[in-house]
Design goal:
This protein is α/β, with parallel strands linked by helices. It has 2 domains: 30 residues; 133 residues, Glutaredoxin (3-Layer(aba) Sandwich), CATH 3.40.30.10. It has 6 helices and 7 strands, in the order H-H-H-E-H-E-H-E-E-E-H-E-E. A 5-stranded mixed beta sheet has the order 2-1-4-5-6. A two-stranded antiparallel sheet has the order 3-7.
Length: 181
C-alpha cells in the first residue's frame, strides 16, 4: 500500500514537472519569438517591400538588388544588416529583393548569373552594375560601396565570400501533365 501511495505521488510530481516545463517553453517562445524568428520574418517581408525591378531600373535612382531564398541560412544571417541598410538608404536608393525560388524572377537570375546566394548587386542611376557581392558580407563593406555609388569614379568590382548557399533546383514549380491531379 505504501508503495502504491509513493507511486501515485511520483506520477503526480512527474505530471506537475512536465506541465511546468511545457509552460516555461511556451512562455519563452512567446516572449522571445522576435529574437528567434526575426531573420525569417525579415526575409519574407523583403519580397513584399521590394521595389519592382522594372521600375527600379528606370526611375533614375541607384539600385540595391538582392537575390535570396527563405531557406538560405546565410541570407537569414545577413537579413538584419540588410534591413538596417534599407531603413537608412531607402529614400535615395531602390531596394529590390528577388526570391530565387520564384520562377517569375528567372530572367533576372539568368541575366545576372546568380549561382550562389545571397547575391547583392549595386547599380548606379543609369543601371550600370557597379558592385556584386556573393555570400556572407560585412555590412561595412556593403555600406562603403553604397556610399561610393554617388562618386564620379566607378569601378566594377565583384566580392565573393566563402560563405554562401548554392541555388537549389526548384522542383516545386515543375509542371507536367500529371502534376495537376
Amino acid at each position: 500500500m505504501q508503495s502504491e501511495s509513493q507511486e501515485q505521488i511520483l506520477k503526480k510530481n512527474f505530471k506537475t514537472t512536465l506541465v511546468l516545463i511545457i509552460s516555461i517553453v511556451m512562455i519563452s517562445t512567446l516572449l522571445f519569438r522576435n529574437f528567434f524568428f526575426k531573420s525569417t520574418y525579415l526575409l519574407k517581408s523583403f519580397g513584399e517591400l521590394s521595389v519592382d525591378p522594372e521600375i527600379a531600373f528606370t526611375n533614375n535612382k541607384p539600385t540595391f538588388l538582392e537575390f535570396y531564398a527563405e531557406w538560405c541560412e546565410v541570407c537569414k544571417e545577413m537579413a538584419p544588416q540588410v534591413s538596417a541598410l534599407k531603413d537608412e538608404y531607402e529614400k535615395d536608393i531602390n531596394f529590390v529583393f528577388l526570391n530565387v525560388d520564384n520562377q517569375k524572377w528567372g530572367n533576372y537570375i539568368e541575366k545576372f548569373a546568380v549561382n550562389g546566394i545571397p547575391q547583392v548587386n549595386l547599380f548606379d542611376k543609369k543601371g550600370n552594375l557597379i558592385s556584386s557581392f556573393i555570400g556572407k558580407q560585412d555590412e561595412k563593406k556593403i555600406r562603403e560601396s553604397i556610399n561610393n555609388l554617388e562618386k564620379e569614379e566607378k569601378l566594377s568590382e565583384e566580392i565573393i565570400s566563402a560563405e554562401f548557399s548554392t541555388i537549389q533546383e526548384n522542383k516545386n514549380n515543375d509542371v507536367s501533365p500529371r502534376s495537376h491531379g
